[in-house]
Structures are given as C-alpha cells and as structure tokens.
Design goal:
The chain is built from seven helices and 18 strands. With 404 residues, the chain is of the alpha+beta class. The protein has three domains: 113 residues, no CATH class; 127 residues, no CATH class; 120 residues, no CATH class. It has a six-stranded antiparallel beta sheet, with helices on one face. A hairpin with a 6-residue loop joins strand 4 and strand 5. It is flat. 25% of the residues are buried.
C-alpha cells in the first residue's frame, strides 16, 4: 500500500509539472552604460563657452615640449577663422597646422581621451584650452608631451596698441639688419570673412643691387610695389592702429624671417579683417634642391653597372667607412676596420641611398652643402646639418671612384 501511494504521488507531481505553462523567457540584459569620463564633459562644457564668448580677434602662442620634440607656433584668429605661423623649433607638416587652432585643440583633446594619462585644462572665462598633457609615446600609461597656450590676448585687452607698435618696430629692425646680396619673399593679403575677396599675392626679390616686385596671377588688386614692401606694410598697419583698429604681429625667431600680421580695422564690425603673410624664400635651400635634382639626373643618365669607391662619414657618432663595389648591378658593401656592424640609419654607402639621405635632410628643413661630380653626378662631399630625424651632423665623402 505504501509503495502504491508513493508511486501515485510521483505520477501526480509529474502530471502537474507537465501541465504547467513554461516559465517566461527573461528579457535581454540591458547593455552596460559606457563609463562616464569627466574630461569629455569638461571639453563639451568649455567648447560651448568658447562658442559663446570667442573674441572677434585674438592671438596666442602654442608651445610643445616632450617626447623628443620642441616647437612653438603663433596662432591669430579673426572673425571665426585662424592662421598659423612657425615661431621656433621643429616644423610640423602643413596637414597638422589646423590642430593648433582652438577648434583643433578641442578636437585633439577629444581624440586623446582613450588614454587615461591625457589631461586638459581650460580658461573658464573664454573657454579655450590652456594646457594639453598627452600620453607618452613610449609608455601610454604615463604623461609625456605637454602643449601650452601662452600669452593669449584679444582685441579687447588693455595695451594692445602698444603691443602691436613694439612688434612692428621689431619687424622693421629685423628687416633693416638683412644684408644678403640676394633675397626674396612672397607677400600675401587674405581676408578673414567668408565672403572675402581672393588672396592678393606679390613676389618681392632682390638681386644684383636691384629690388623688383611682381603681382601674382590674380593681379595687383590696387596695391603697388611700395605697398608690399616691408616699410610700406608697417606704415599701413600703423595707420590702422592710429585709426582705432587692432593688429597682431608675429615674426619667426632667428634665423627665420617669416611674419604673420592679423589686422582688424574696426573691431566692432565684421567683414573687413585680414591677414598679411610675409613668407621668405630660402634661396640657399632652393639652390641645394636644384643642384641635387641635376646631379641625380646626371647619375641616372650615366647608367653605370660596374664601378667601385670608398664611402666615409665623419661627425656626430664617430667615423664610418665602407668599400662599395658594384658589378652587373649588384652591390657589395664591405665595412672598414673599426666600423660597427650595427650601422646607424645615416650609414648610406650606396650612392642612391646617399641621394635619398640628402633629399630627406632638405625635406625636414635641414641644410646641406654638397658638391657633385661634374660628369657622373654622384656626391663627392656632403656636409649635413639636419633639423629632424634624418641624418646626423657630419660630412660624407665618396673617394677613389673607379669604373671597372
């Protein structure tokens, strides 16, 4: 009897279970909210402040230090637009210059939030970033390079006329100290407003004791050779200041000569602000590039397949020496005694690689004094003074060149 009742009870429980409705499927889990980042909130808050309180005309320096690089640029803003000029240190590629403006700093700050080491500080009044501390290139978990907005000033600040007058006098002094036998610069005036006229460009050159000024393809736009001279430019800006206008004058540190002048003739009005940019031509660099191009052409025309020479470098890092032999288009490079097996990047004993090194040094703003073989074009002596990662301060010579 007990066994029968137990079996019946089990069967009843199973039947009840089978007859019961299935448990509802639980709803999908709610995705976890992304981590709140107070830095992003601060960027958005101050970007809104900047949009509301941005001055019609302003200027500042942006300085970068860290991760093996140091540079300084000057930025001036007019009616919502901005222009940039190099002050000192290494030069950035043109594509990077937009990142130095206030809008660019906000964007770069947002792009850097993936690193917990990145920090940004702001001016709570105007809203603009004042300091950006980036993650180290070698260790992203720690701070590295720092960029600082220095000497921010707007057209509404006290003492702006005196500041501009002093900068104009410094520009004149730099100009009057130039005693080069030949020089050249490009003078460009460009409007700041969206509906401004196309830029006006003149080229001013001096050679053989004579100075000439030539308008660009867009014509002279009513300007004269006197207007685009350094003295004429300074006088015109002084007249703006006397009439109640604002100007910001930035000149590249020695040995540079480039200048950028932001002008707002009527700070309370719109549509009349403009920039004048004076960009000096590096005639020595242009000559170096031209000579290199001609030498490479002579070397390519020679089409030599069998020859030998000794390649030597003396300068920073010591001495390197190689014997190079080419036969049937195949190179054999043999280090001389004392030359380390692990050669540095500027050890370029092949002639084609030496050409490439010269190209790279010039491309990074360095200087090269080179002599080339009159007939074959290969470099015989190269004095390198790099301004970047390419090359090292030193002299390369190619000696005992022999055809086989």
């Amino acid at each position: 009897m007990r066994r029968t009742l137990g079996v019946a009870l089990v069967l009843a429980l199973l039947a009840a279970a089978c007859g019961a409705s299935a448990a509802p499927t639980p709803p999908p889990a709610t995705p976890a909210a992304s981590a709140w980042d107070p830095r992003r909130d601060a960027i958005e808050q101050h970007e809104g402040i900047w949009a509301k309180h941005q001055p019609a005309a302003y200027a500042y320096d942006l300085a970068h230090e860290g991760d093996g690089r140091t540079w300084r640029y000057h930025v001036s803003g007019l009616e919502g637009a901005a222009e940039v000029v190099h002050r000192s240190g290494g030069a950035l590629p043109d594509a990077a210059l937009a990142g130095l403006t206030i809008d660019g700093l906000f964007q770069r700050a947002r792009d850097s939030l993936a690193s917990p080491a990145f920090q940004v500080a702001f001016d709570d009044g105007a809203g603009n970033p004042t300091t950006l501390t980036f993650a180290s290139a070698s260790d992203p978990s720690v701070a590295g390079a720092v960029e600082t907005v220095d000497d921010f000033h707007a057209s509404t600040a006290r003492g702006e006329v005196a500041r501009a007058q002093a900068a104009l006098q410094a520009l004149l002094q730099r100009w009057r100290a130039i005693d080069d036998a030949r020089w050249s610069y490009t003078w460009t005036r460009s409007g700041a407003g969206a509906a401004s006229a196309p830029p006006v460009t003149w080229t001013v050159s001096h050679a053989k004791g004579r100075t000439t000024a030539k308008a660009g393809a867009a014509g002279d736009a009513g300007f004269t050779a006197d207007d685009v001279s350094i003295e004429g430019t300074v006088l015109a800006i002084q007249n703006v200041l006397v009439s109640g206008g604002w100007a910001d004058v930035a000149v590249e540190d020695d040995p540079g000569r480039d200048a950028l002048v932001a002008v707002d003739p009527r700070p309370g009005a719109t549509g009349d602000a403009y920039w004048i940019r004076i960009a000096w031509a590096d005639l020595d660099r242009e000559a170096s590039v031209s000579e290199l191009s001609a030498a490479k052409a002579r070397w390519a025309t020679a089409q030599l397949t069998d020859y030998g020479y000794t390649w030597e470098y003396r300068g920073d890092g010591g001495t390197l020496s190689y014997r190079v032999a080419r036969k049937g288009g195949t190179d054999t490079v043999t280090p001389a005694a004392g030359t380390p097996a692990a050669a540095p990047a500027y050890a370029v004993p092949r002639i084609e690689d030496t050409f490439a090194l010269i190209d790279a040094v010039l491309g990074e703003g360095g200087t090269v004094e080179a002599t080339y073989d009159d007939q074959l074009g290969y470099p015989t002596r190269v004095d390198l003074h790099p301004n970047g990662d390419a090359g090292a301060n030193g002299v390369i010579t190619i000696k005992a060149f022999k055809r086989r």
